[in-house]
Structures are given as C-alpha cells and as structure tokens.
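Structure first, sequence second, as always.
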C-alpha cells in the first residue's frame, strides 16, 4: 500500500444517510448528538493533548471514544516516510486469531487494500464495507474475519492528500461496531471524530518511532579542571617532570643530569609512574599522560 507524503486535508463534514448500503458512503441526514455524547466529545478533545504513547492511545479510545463510537477492534495506519508505506497497528479488547490480525495489519494485505479501494471509490467519505461483497484475494480474509468474529461490516475512514485520494496520511478501520441499523450513526460519529483521531494518532506514531531509534554513543568528554586535578593527584610534580623528559626521548642518565638526581632515582620514579598509569612501558605511559593532560607539548621547554 505505497503512498506519498504531504499535508493532510481538512476532514469532511458529518452528514449521514438514514440507511446503510453495502460499501455505501454516508449520505445527507444530519447527525444528532445526545447530551451524553456531546459531553463525551468534550472529554475526548480535552484528553487528546496528553496522549503521546501507544498505551495512552488505547486507554483514550477505550474510555472517551467508546461512548461515541463503540467498537471491538481498531486498526490505525500512519504514513511512514522512511518506508514509503502506511504502517498499521491494531488495538482490540477481544482476542484476535493470528491470521485475522495479520490480514488487518500486514503491509500490502489484500483485505486492507480492498478496504482502501472501497473508501477511495466512495470519495473518501466514511465507508461501511460489507465483508460478503469483497472478492478476489480479499474474500478469503474477509471470510475468516466473519467466521472468527461474526462481523458483517468494517467501518473505514482516513485522511489523504488534497486532490490525491490514494496518497494516504492516516487510515482507521473499525470492527465490531454493531448491526446494520447502527452503521449510519457510527459512520457519522467517525466523520465527526476524524480530525481528533488523525492528529492524536499522528502524534503517537511520531513519538513511538522516535523512541525506537537507536541512541548514538555519547562522545567522550574532554577532561575538565576537576578530572585533571584528580589525575594529577595520583602523579606527583616530580613524576610529571620526568614524564615530560621521557616524552622528549631522554635516557635515565640524561634526566638525572637535568634534575640533579641519580639515575636510580629516575628509574624508581618511572616504575611508580608505570604502576599509577597502568602502563606497560615508557611509551605507553607518555601516551596515557598526554590523553589525561598531565603533560603537554610545551612541558619540556618550560622545564628547560
């Protein structure tokens, strides 16, 4: 189900028909809301900004949305720009057989493609799709859905790019929405809720995708004054002097002559330096000392 990306259009209105037909979009009768439904819409809108994770989205749809659009299964799709396809996810409060779940959420699923085709053919209006009217490869999946759950229709709606109905930004498939007599009312409610549903799922999808990205390894920190001071606490001033001359390639005798001490004392200092730095030889000790900023390129000149 490959699509292209773009800005979603403004969702459609909320007119409905008095009767639902197979694969029929909604007609022209106005949806009337009860006081309880109107209050549910207010609660749904107020709670939406706090929905940022997948589990929060499920709670949101099972609480505020169930009062307006009762359902057992909700499949949500959002355009994935890296994969250039619509990624599908399912939320359900009943047990779904693995094959039924796969038919509703797999990329390129014959059933989902058929549902999208019906929705586009209905001019991107909320669409109640009769499962027994599907044919081809989608018919087998539809039969499995009907046999496992007893569904006769699936309700489909979404958001696509302006003037490009096949380029989907978000897609929503509802199952377990009630009998034929309720299809028109449920479809009208879905049309009314689409803007909030679209924006909330887009936010959740973006956040979940961001959380799945691997965290790049942190760059090693340069030693600051505190860490340098701690390192210098382990190496004495005299040992730093000796490290500076070792870096210049001087022998124990030459260092002893410069500092006015015996070569044996220099050797003892170097042995202590190797132990403190965990170095195996003089060259490694110098490298570790430079990395820890115990000595620098001007050290020998300053000592001289």
């Amino acid at each position: 189900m490959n699509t292209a990306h773009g800005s979603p259009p403004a969702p459609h209105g909320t007119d409905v028909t008095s009767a639902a037909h197979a694969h029929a979009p909604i007609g022209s009768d106005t949806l009337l809301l009860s006081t309880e439904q109107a209050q549910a819409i207010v609660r749904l809108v107020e709670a939406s900004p706090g929905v940022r994770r997948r589990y929060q989205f499920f709670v949101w749809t099972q609480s505020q949305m169930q009062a307006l659009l009762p359902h057992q299964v909700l499949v949500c799709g959002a355009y994935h720009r890296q994969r250039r396809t619509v990624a599908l996810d399912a939320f359900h409060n009943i047990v779904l057989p693995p094959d039924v779940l796969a038919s509703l959420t797999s990329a390129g699923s014959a059933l989902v493609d058929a549902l999208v085709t019906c929705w586009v053919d209905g001019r991107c209006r909320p669409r109640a799709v009769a499962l027994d009217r599907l044919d081809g490869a989608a018919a087998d999946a539809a039969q499995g859905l009907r046999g496992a759950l007893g569904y006769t229709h699936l309700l489909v709606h979404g958001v696509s790019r302006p003037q490009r109905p096949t380029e989907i930004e978000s897609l929503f498939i509802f199952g377990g929405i009630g009998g034929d007599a309720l299809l028109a009312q449920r479809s009208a409610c879905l049309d009314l809720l689409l803007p909030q549903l679209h924006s909330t799922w887009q936010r959740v999808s973006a956040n979940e995708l961001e959380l799945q990205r691997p965290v790049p390894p942190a760059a090693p920190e340069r030693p600051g004054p505190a860490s340098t001071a701690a390192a210098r606490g382990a190496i004495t001033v005299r040992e730093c002097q000796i490290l500076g001359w070792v870096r210049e390639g001087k022998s124990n005798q030459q260092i002893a002559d410069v500092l006015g001490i015996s070569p044996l004392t220099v050797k003892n200092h170097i042995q202590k330096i190797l132990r403190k730095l965990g170095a195996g030889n003089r060259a490694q000790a110098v490298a570790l000392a430079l990395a820890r900023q115990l000595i620098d390129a001007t050290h020998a000149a300053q000592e001289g």
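Margin note: Confidence is low (pLDDT under 50) at residues 1-29, 228-232, 297-304.
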